[in-house]
Amino acid sequence: MQIAHLEITLAGDEKGNIPSYQMGSLFHGWLMERVSPDYARLLHQSEMKPFSQYVEKKGQEAIWHISALDRTACQEIIVPLLEEDFSCIEIRHKKEVFKAGEKKLVYSFASYKELADRYYLESTPSRVVKMEMVTPVSFRSGGEYQIFPSLHLIYQNLINRWNQFADKVSLEEKNLAATLAEHSFISGYRLETRYFPLEKIFIPAFAGRMSIKIAAPSPMVALINMLLGYSAFSGLGIKTSLGMGGVRVIEEKRGEWSGKRQAILKIHSSRKFLMIKYSYGD
Amino acid sequence: MQIAHLEITLAGDEKGNIPSYQMGSLFHGWLMERVSPDYARLLHQSEMKPFSQYVEKKGQEAIWHISALDRTACQEIIVPLLEEDFSCIEIRHKKEVFKAGEKKLVYSFASYKELADRYYLESTPSRVVKMEMVTPVSFRSGGEYQIFPSLHLIYQNLINRWNQFADKVSLEEKNLAATLAEHSFISGYRLETRYFPLEKIFIPAFAGRMSIKIAAPSPMVALINMLLGYSAFSGLGIKTSLGMGGVRVIEEKRGEWSGKRQAILKIHSSRKFLMIKYSYGD
Question: Which segments constitute the CRISPR-associated protein Cas6 C-terminal domain (chains A, B) (predicted)?
């Protein structure tokens, strides 16, 4: 198991407090206390974390989403949470205890190749992708927090993670994020700013929904679907291990695209690389 | 009277249909039939219209907002609507008749100087401005419709209008829009896409609310407040004579700004120009 997404239903505490996204960093703290000290140290040192987690409040209960992006993270984080001895989360300094109910391993992929195949073997990939930003999403660019979505930043963020953790399938192409952004656009959204609490600061971010339309030849459509689909595991933007950037992805309309520009897109899949090369005719 | 904003309450028609922003271009058509043929021809030829109008649905009635930006428009558009013989709006091809109720001349300024004074004589201008985009706002930039707000585009749009219609007070400064955008930022928003119907097409746009924070010396704060305040008359973005870009402006927090950069901002107000010059120390 190399990629996994676990959902744990949490009940409110004795006082009726229900966990919400604002508690993301407290849940992260609890998680770090549970993993082995060596692994915690390793995670602390790594700039890009091989896992993401966020809390989603849903009526009178909450869903805690935890994703692992490599084999070790699956072993160190997901597997222990599935064990019977884990039955509640205690946020000590807040004196809150949340009981874990149903545990659902929603997705698990043996490899990145298996995840990629899911999109590349699809005969008519979605040309409209709807994303729900469940917890606040933010990007750092030009030294500033970006509170509006940008497809370029979104793709770059996901490509970086993919290449960091996908050991046998990597995306090698100059300016790939820019190319993908040129062939897709945000067609609709309903978004609002949210400020994510982190120790003593609040990080500017946004949450809500948006639709992405893809005007590209099929293999590129598959690639965009794959990257956006991956965000449901990796999270999107900054601080995804602390509870930010929790997203859900819905692929929608299918059907062929016919643009003015004819496009030939070749995918060289080898054991080592999923290389993508473009060439455009007139 | 050089600038005026008129609000007319409209009742629903016999079938209970209430006018909404989607009817903007139909209301424009009705208005153009009422003005003198010479003036209609003049308006048709002018790229930047000296008026704006939009329809705001409010519960079981609607408010029709009409603003005039120069003396002729006040005379040709606002004054006739205030006359008693105007009592209903007939959208012929839809066979709808909307009765006019209360007519309120919400604002009227004798001159642009008078409007400018309102902001420049304010001792502590607002450092937070909240805007409500009541009807869909869109910009054209780089050959594309912009469905996210950009302060640079907003300021440029308003400066262009101001300089077009303010005969004795103009804003002359290179890169003024960029400078203003550097000294302010969108701190919060709740926006969604809306598609504005125009004959046979739908123009991508956005509506909702946003807050703008201004980090600048007082005179620049006054200028930004003035420009944004002007948008309540001129409308914002494209197609403001057809019902798009209807905005409301709320000035909020007051108080001094203390930035790292010391700034000296001089305003030379003469009969002809309200010139703005910047010089920054370290």
Answer: 131-247
